[in-house]
Structures are given as structure tokens and as C-alpha cells.
Automatic annotation (TrEMBL):
Belongs to the flagella basal body rod proteins family. The basal body constitutes a major portion of the flagellar organelle and consists of five rings (E,L,P,S, and M) mounted on a central rod. The rod consists of about 26 subunits of FlgG in the distal portion, and FlgB, FlgC and FlgF are thought to build up the proximal portion of the rod with about 6 subunits each. Residues 81-147 form the Flagellar hook protein FlgE/F/G-like D1 domain. GO terms for biological process: bacterial-type flagellum-dependent swarming motility. It is found in: Bacterial flagellum basal body. Keywords: Bacterial flagellum, Cell projection, Cilium, Flagellum. The keyword Membrane does not apply. One of its GO terms (cellular component) is bacterial-type flagellum basal body, rod. Residues 5-35 form the Flagellar basal body rod protein N-terminal domain. It comes from Shewanella holmiensis. The keyword Nucleotide-binding does not apply. InterPro entries: Flag_bb_rod_N, Flagellar_FlgE/F/G, Flg_bb/hook_C_dom, FlgE/F/G-like, FlgF, LlgE_F_G-like_D1. Residues 199-242 form the Flagellar basal-body/hook protein C-terminal domain. This is Flagellar basal-body rod protein FlgF.
């Protein structure tokens, strides 16, 4: 009877973990460049004295869905969307290099180029700082940033930096706790001049809200089933105890 209870109990617990992953996906359905996480369930043997016959359920996230999100035109000069595979290099809070697909850019009062999450954008020589004051900023498909200084004539355009784009292969990437992606090796990825962007547009989230809602409902029903199984195990155990007392 305890085996029955163990499987049901672990199944209910892991169902809550799966629900958290799906809820996080749904919460980021409108987050630019967000990539949804996947979940899968499998049986896992319990190790330890007296436990070799125990098997419990385990929910894990085998990876991330790296499919591209929809490209949304914005008309902003500082918005970029990567075409196909590739990543924008940024500087994480700990100073390390990380990667994202969020391409809604802006600059602060010091000229530091950042994205919508206030994460600095990396260039070939580190975080990009624009020479203020400026009247106009342009970003080419190759990531070259050109500016027109304040007060200059319309034909005066100066190249000031180039955004670092990388494309090490999605199978080499993993999401960190800060939501940014890094190489599994922990090393910075080399720049890739073949990565192209579309200016005046951003990539939306690849989350399918309907799919996530259906998955959440299915997980909730599985949780209810596991709880019912635990109640059935309790009732069966109580009935067995009654029979022993009668005997």
C-alpha cells in the first residue's frame, strides 16, 4: 500500500512543478524574444536502504523551445529583430556575457545602449556607449550603429559601434536563472557576421497561450487524480486494518 501512496504523492508534487513551468510560459506570452520551456514526465527509481522497489514520478524541463516568435513592425529606429537563428550579446548583472533575442533597445542619459530590461548591449569591445547628444540612430542589418550628432546636417552619419551577434547553435544554449541564455560550456560565444537583423521591428514571444492553457488544465486534472488516488489508498489501508482487527 505504501508503494501506491508513494507514486501518487510524488505524482501530485511533480504536477505542481510542471504547473509552475507552464504558468511561467503563459506569464511571458507578451515578453519580447521570450522562448518557452518544455516539460516531460518520467519514472525515477528511489535509491537508499529499503527503497530499491520504490519508483516515483519526476517532472523535468528537457530544454527550451527555440522556434522564432512573430516579427512585429514598430517603426522605431532602435528596435531590431533577428532573422532566423542568432542571438544578441548582452552584459549580465554579474558582468558576464549572456545572450537574448529581446531587441527593443534604448540608451540612458550616459549613452549606454540597453534593452527593455535595462541590460547593456555588447559590441566588439564591450558594452556600447553612444556619443551624446545625437539626433538620430540607425542600425544596419549587420548590426552597425550609425548616428547623426545633434545639430549636424541630414547627410552627416557616423558609424560608432557594431552590436555583437552570435550563433553557436541552439543545442549549445541553456537558460540561466536571470532569464538570459549562455553556452553550456560557460565560455563566451564567438561573434557571427552572418547573423542579420530587421530594423524597426521586434520579435515577439513564441509562447502559444492556447496551448499553455490547455496544458495547465490537463496538469490540474492530473493533480486531482493523484490526490484521489491518495484518498483511495488511505481508504484501502483503513479497510485492511479493519479486517485484521476482525481476524
Amino acid at each position: 500500500m505504501d508503494k501506491f501512496m508513494y507514486v501518487a504523492m510524488s505524482g501530485a508534487k511533480q504536477g505542481m512543478n510542471a504547473l509552475a513551468v507552464r504558468a511561467n510560459n503563459l506569464a511571458n506570452a507578451n515578453t519580447d524574444g521570450f522562448k518557452s520551456d518544455m516539460t516531460q514526465a518520467r519514472a525515477m527509481q528511489a535509491f537508499g536502504e529499503g527503497l530499491p522497489t520504490r519508483v516515483f514520478s519526476m517532472i523535468e524541463s528537457p530544454g527550451t523551445n527555440f522556434s522564432s516568435g512573430p516579427i512585429k513592425s514598430t517603426g522605431r529606429d532602435l528596435d531590431i529583430a533577428i532573422k532566423g537563428d542568432g542571438w544578441i550579446a548582452v552584459q549580465a548583472a554579474d558582468g558576464s556575457e549572456a545572450y537574448t533575442r529581446a531587441g527593443s533597445l534604448k540608451f540612458d542619459n550616459t549613452g549606454l545602449l540597453i534593452n527593455s530590461r535595462n541590460t547593456p548591449i555588447m559590441g566588439d569591445a564591450g558594452p556600447i556607449v553612444l556619443p551624446l547628444p545625437i539626433d538620430k540612430v540607425q542600425i544596419s542589418p549587420e548590426g552597425i550603429i550609425s548616428v547623426r550628432p545633434q545639430g549636424a546636417t541630414a547627410e552627416v552619419i557616423e558609424e560608432v559601434a557594431r552590436i555583437k551577434f552570435v550563433n553557436p547553435g541552439n543545442d549549445q544554449m541553456m537558460r540561466g536563472e536571470d532569464g538570459l541564455f549562455r553556452l553550456m560550456s560557460g565560455l563566451p560565444a564567438p561573434k557571427d557576421p552572418m547573423v542579420q537583423v530587421e530594423s524597426g521591428a521586434i520579435e515577439g514571444s513564441n509562447v502559444n497561450p492556447v496551448h499553455e492553457m490547455v496544458a495547465m488544465i490537463d496538469i490540474q486534472r492530473q493533480y486531482e487524480m493523484q490526490v484521489k488516488m491518495m484518498k483511495n489508498a488511505e481508504e484501502a489501508d483503513r479497510a485492511s486494518s479493519s479486517l485484521l482487527r476482525i481476524g
